[in-house]
Design the sequence.
């Protein structure tokens, strides 16, 4: 299946070409349904370039345009917009082509893969080790995973790299500190747990900040580590293993997979990077440090702003390892696109590193380097997110809290209350936790549902926000059963599945005969929404914006509610004649499958019941 938007774009492009007109067909979904489903704004630019008024150009394009198989005859509106309205016959034909259960491509709803697959590296999560993951790592992990899933779905080869901070002063500091104060810990590294490591880190850091001699000792230890001293490496490895064990317990719960390839991985590559920069004259000394100067970067005073790639003490820094990372990703992994999912606070760092990589010729025109920056997570009150003691909030405790809250929402039967607003829905509502408890669902089963709902709520809430904006972490809002939330979406999915059960149909093996019948406005609106899924994925991938997908899924579930509503919509289970009933059940099935696939691209598992 192709996206309708791409289909119309190709048709307009063909009409323009037939007239010798250049430019983009500029087809977009209409913002106002009164003007149809799609519109093309190409006539303005084409008229500017080729002469004539935009309306004349638009009329000329219409003369050459062949869309009779999909649209009502298009018209020209306003200064020269071309409006398209899809016909029910086209909707029925397109949706009718979506493979049914068991047919090839059914799990991807028949959506085409890209014709130009590339190697994409997504740099995600990437916490600094020796500390527990905190709330700040949530976004990078969840957004990075979603972007990776969308690009994988399109058919790209995605490599997900966890660029952990495992190689810096903090490790020298920790080793030096334990040697000095708790040598017994070093004798029994197997017993080390992340909480101890974090506590030692805090103590070590405080000593580091007030004791010059200790600071010096720490720095010497880092040098020993980087030179490969066996004993220091042994301790360092134990620290990293324990930290990563903790991180992976979180990734597993979040269902995020990635490869650990932290800063230490590039240790041997960094000197080569420096050599290449010097050999080719791209770096020069300034105040004892080796720097790259790129056009367009200035200090506040207007002086050239250096990117330091080797400190005056000879050590490498964050920029050096990121340059080595770029070299590895492009030259060894063959990446054509590298996406860094890192907070917007690091924008300048990435702008400068990318500019240096371009200057050095490592990233040519065919390679995209993109910093996908995101805003902060704030507390529910809007203040910076801190514990009562002023510490950072641990990601694990936030996840646990969301799961516990999800369980109490389910137990209190909140889902029933939400569904009660719509009589018909209440009649067909899926079993809820409260029912389940009565129906003898085990405590383990309840826990599993709460785990899925609680973590889905955190993810969905994060992804549903505009990336660059800060947002408030508000459990009440994200666990609400109505609104643009995970519980609402999961509930919508479970509800459609329940309709299948009530109709005596197993959607997992549903292979309906006969075509789709689209007559009622609610049926047509739902069909249009279903057909927009393919282009929504294209758009979310092109802009790297997960909220394009959440907005779509929310809209789809609202269209479904209208379709299924007793007053505004149509009968389904008891619809007559049988052909109409099957067609409507098929729309239910398509809705459930679209929601399920869409949520899976957000990294969210659906539930049969909740
Ligand atoms: N470890 C870094 C931090 O916590 C983030 C690393 C992001 N990735 C990168 N290639 N620089 O700030």
Sequence:
């Amino acid at each position: 299946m192709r996206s309708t938007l791409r289909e119309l774009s190709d048709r307009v492009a063909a009409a323009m070409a037939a007239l010798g007109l250049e430019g983009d067909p500029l087809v977009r979904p209409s913002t106002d349904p009164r003007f149809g489903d799609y519109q093309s704004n190409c006539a303005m630019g084409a008229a500017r370039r080729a002469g004539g008024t935009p309306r004349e150009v638009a009329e000329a394009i219409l003369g050459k345009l062949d869309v009779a198989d999909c649209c009502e005859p298009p018209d020209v509106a306003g200064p020269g917009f071309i409006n398209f309205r899809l016909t029910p016959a086209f909707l029925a034909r397109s949706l009718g082509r979506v493979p049914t259960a068991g047919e090839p491509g059914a799990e991807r709803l028949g959506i085409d893969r890209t014709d130009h697959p590339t190697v994409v590296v997504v740099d995600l999560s990437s916490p600094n080790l020796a500390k527990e993951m905190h709330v700040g790592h949530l976004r990078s992990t969840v957004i990075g995973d979603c972007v990776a899933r969308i690009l994988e779905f399109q058919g790209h080869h995605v490599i997900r790299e966890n660029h952990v901070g495992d190689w810096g002063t903090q490790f020298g500091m920790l080793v030096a500190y334990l040697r000095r104060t708790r040598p017994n810990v070093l004798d029994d590294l197997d017993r080390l747990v992340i909480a101890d490591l974090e506590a030692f880190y805090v103590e070590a850091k405080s000593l580091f900040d007030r004791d010059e001699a200790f600071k010096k000792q720490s720095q010497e230890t880092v040098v020993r580590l980087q030179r490969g001293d066996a004993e220091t490496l042994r301790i360092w490895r134990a620290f990293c293993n324990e930290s990563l064990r903790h991180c992976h317990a979180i990734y597993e719960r979040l269902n995020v997979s990635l490869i650990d390839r932290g800063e230490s991985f590039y240790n041997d590559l960094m000197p080569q990077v420096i050599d290449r920069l010097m050999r080719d004259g791209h770096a020069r000394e300034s105040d004892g440090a080796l720097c790259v100067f790129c056009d367009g970067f200035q200090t506040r005073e207007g002086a050239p702003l250096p990117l330091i790639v080797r400190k005056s003490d000879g050590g490498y820094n964050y920029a050096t390892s990121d340059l080595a990372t770029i070299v590895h990703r492009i030259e060894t992994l063959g990446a054509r696109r590298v996406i860094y999912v890192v907070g917007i606070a690091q924008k300048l760092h990435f702008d400068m590193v990318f500019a240096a990589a371009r200057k050095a010729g490592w990233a040519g025109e065919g390679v995209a380097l993109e910093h996908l920056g995101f805003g902060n997570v704030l507390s529910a009150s809007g203040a910076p997110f801190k514990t009562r003691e002023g510490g950072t909030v641990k990601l694990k405790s936030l996840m646990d809290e969301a799961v516990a809250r999800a369980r109490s929402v389910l137990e209190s039967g909140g889902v029933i209350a939400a569904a009660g607003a719509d009589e018909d829905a209440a009649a067909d509502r899926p079993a809820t936790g409260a029912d389940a408890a009565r129906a003898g669902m085990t405590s383990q089963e309840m826990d599993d549902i709460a785990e899925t709902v609680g973590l889905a709520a955190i993810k969905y809430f994060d992804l549903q926000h505009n990336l660059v904006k800060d947002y408030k972490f508000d459990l009440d809002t994200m666990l609400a059963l109505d609104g643009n939330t995970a519980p609402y979406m999961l509930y919508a999915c479970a509800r459609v599945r329940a309709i299948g059960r009530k109709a005596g149909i197993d959607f997992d093996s549903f292979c309906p005969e006969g075509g789709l019948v689209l007559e009622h406005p609610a049926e047509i609106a739902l069909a249009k929404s279903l057909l927009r899924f393919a282009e929504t994925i294209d758009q979310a991938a092109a802009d790297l914006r997960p909220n394009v997908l959440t907005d779509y899924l929310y809209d789809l579930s609202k269209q479904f509610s209208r379709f299924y509503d007793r007053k505004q919509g149509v009968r389904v289970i008891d619809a007559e004649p049988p052909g109409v009933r099957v067609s409507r059940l098929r729309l239910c099935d398509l809705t459930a499958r679209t929601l399920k696939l869409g949520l899976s691209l957000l990294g969210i598992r659906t539930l049969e019941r909740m």
Notes: Residues 123, 126-128, 163, 165, 322, 325, 340, 342 surround arginine (CB under 6 Å).
